[in-house]
Amino acid sequence: MNLKHFYLLFLFPLTVSAQDIYFSDPIPVADNSYGSRAPRVDLLDDGSPVVYFGKSGTNPLLHIARFSGDAFLTPVQIPISNLDVNLWSGELGPQLATFGNTVYVVYEVYGEGIYLSTSTDGGDNWLDPISVVDLPAGRFATLPSVGVDPAGNPVVSFVTTNSFEQEAQYEVAISTNGGVSFEPTVVANAPASGEEVCECCPASIGTDSDGQLFLTFRNNNNNIRDIWVSRAPGVMADFDTATDIDDTDWEIFSCPASGPNSVQSNDDWVSVFFSAGAGFSSVYVSELDRNTMTAGGQWAMPTFNGGETTQNYPRIAGQGDTLAMVWEESATGSKDVLFAWSDSGASNLIDASYILAGGDFAQRNPDIAYRDGLFHVVYTDQLTNQVMYVEAGFAPFVSVKEPKKEVVSFGLSPNPASGNFDIRLAHALDQTARYRVLELSGKVVASGYVSQEVTAVSCTHLPEGIYFVEVIFDEAVSGANRMTEKLVLQRK
């Protein structure tokens, strides 16, 4: 695996964490003949990543690819017994969970039921799919999510509605025998306010280190679609308490089609979610004391692109105080995958944001997993129609196959600038590069080519303020296709 580190710059001059974060080169999980719909990543017993992704079409396909050595093995097609599986779009498709070398994938046939496929050998071989729930007449199930209990048994949540997609509630089905069969379902949102939940938003299901079961979901209390957490004191217990962890009070009369994601962090249950309740589309981080069920802090993630920016589809992973999250950010017609991390708890996730994957085309559907100091991220590259994988850790990645390249970096001089400034590269390039000067809104106000170590740029026509300067490479340089620095224009 060609692992060379590259640096991605801070959004603003923010608090620097005690450690540096490094990213590997992105590598494809499979060629685009296998599809790239809504990838999900989790980890096997030895810490190696296993990735689910789908291929949409008349005959939808579900695939699993396992990492081995320095690359992903040829994807395995999950047998689905001719079921007409709904892959949907965005984050609404099948979901993945692992325990040891057991892999669970849960999916739906809308109007028919929820199904689970299980592999006990890391995804190489699969049992026949089983039905998770026997639905009563007139009820429909959709949008499943899957977690595992402390014994490794699958726990599946899903939304049920009537045939008109009304009377929505979240139900949870629990297996006590490794997914061979499931117990009768329980209604998980019963302790929350209101009579319905969001009919087309997936939930996040998981257990903590004490064996408590948590469902994080989007409620619908008279069209206030806030995020709630409902808790059962044990896997086989009823959900007896729920807390609103969302201060945005988003009133919306249609479905956002975006759900939360959660992870334990010491005594807290930390959730990330999307809301437009404050008047703009933003991703939030929220804490909940998992023992007292008391809501804690809530923080909106800063934007990288500024201006008319929208954020959505966040995912979070980590352990203890070490956390990271990924999400989509859209501006000026393109979508980037952003990455934020903290080694001092959820509140500091707002202090370091990076573009993990960006460009003039869409990078979408990120997911993240964590173990032993390494974050594993997957996303869809919509230019190549491939699932891509990136590893993030606290020490530089060095290829064992190739000598490490010199890192190409650049600086701006002077900065602050009053009229003109220079783009200064660490050394001469052997390829074509371009520069762009952008306002905080993302509007390009100057551009040109970088062909030598020092390139003069005129900015006398620009007003005072803060700008971003991008250098964009035709080919990846030390893992990055573009690098960004902040520029301050300040007239004397």
Please describe what this structure looks like.
This protein is mainly beta and 492 residues long. The protein has 2 domains: 22-393, 6 Propeller (Neuraminidase); 410-489, Immunoglobulin-like (Sandwich), CATH 2.60.40.1220. Helix content is 0%, strand content 49%. The chain contains no helices and 38 strands. The strands form 9 sheets. Strands 1, 2, 29, 30 and 31 form a 5-stranded antiparallel beta sheet that branches. Strands 3, 4, 5, 6 and 7 form a 5-stranded antiparallel beta sheet that branches. β5 (61-68) and β6 form a beta hairpin. The model is unreliable at 1-18, 399-407 and 476-480 (pLDDT under 50).
Number of individual domains: 2
User: Low-confidence runs (pLDDT<50, min 5 residues)?
Assistant: 1-18, 399-407, 476-480
What's the overall geometry? Answer: globular
Report the top-level CATH class of the largest domain.
Mainly Beta
Roughly what is the average pLDDT, rounded to an integer? Answer: 87
Tally the helices. Answer: 0
Provide the gyration radius in Å.
23 Å
For the secondary structure, the number of strands is 38
Summing up helix and strand content along with how strands pair, one would put the structural category as mainly beta
Report, as a whole number of angstroms, the end-to-end distance: 50 Å
Specify the helix fraction band. Answer: under 10%
Assign the CATH architecture of the largest domain: 6 Propeller
Enter the CATH topology name of the largest domain.
Neuraminidase
Q: Which range does the strand content fall in? A: over 45%
